[in-house]
Amino acid sequence: MRAQLERSILQFGLILACFYQAYQLVNSFMAKSTSLGLNIGLTFFFLILLLLNHKYSGSHKWIAIILHVTLLPALIYFWSEFGGLAGTVPIILFVYISWIILTLSGIAKAFVLILYGGIFFLLTLLPEITGIDVYNHAVVNTQQLPVDFFVEALIIIAFLTHMKNKYTGYRKRVEHRNVQLKSINNTLIRQNDSLRYSQEETLSINENLEQLIDRRIQKIEEKNCQLEEYAFINAHILRGPVCRILGLVNLMQNEQPGLEQVSEKAHEVDKLIRKINSITS
Q1: Which of 9, 116, 148, 223 is the most exposed place for a label (fewest CB within 10 A)?
Q2: 84 pairs with which residues across the strands?
Q3: How many domains does the chain have?
Q4: What are the residues facing 135 on neighbouring strands?
């Protein structure tokens, strides 16, 4: 978002610079100034950078660095030719520095600000090194000066209006995002509550299921004990007398014929007991 804002401010600043250079171009042409060629070059320079910034969205930082560094000689020239602190260049310079702050960040911003700060220090405090007067009222056009101030004031107002609109737009977007995030947060809270309720229900079901399983296992164990007890009764208590009856029937058949039916029934009972014993054992 910061890169997008810096690119937008650079784009708008280049548009204002094109309009301002068009104004200066007309003034230079009307006054037949020696800066006519420089103003033409700057106008085309701003137009080229404007097109590049519009076409290549990811390279706005390099475009800004090229712009700020390249304009230094032009600013020094206008400072010397239009009265230094007595002209309108200082206002343009301070507005331009604010533009640097808004269009760059990090090391690039620090580098360009140090560069401009050093040049301004040389021009204002060390004129004997630069050979340029700090104040030169002789080259100031007193009739043109109010018009220049008026145009620069319009540029400042347009720039501040653009910044306010950008700030308002980003603030509305942030507020809209906050509303969306709050809505999402409320939805997540409801889903979390629902999930927690489902988990509690699942835990309750699991606990009841464990209790049911324990009861079923207990019943099965009880049934197994009963079956084991029944199998013991069937194998030892019930079948023992039947076997003795069969033995007595075999002995009695030799002395008293006609006990075949008793033997047959005893064998049937024995088979039935064996079958039950095989199932329960």
Answers
A1: 223
A2: 135
A3: 2
A4: 84
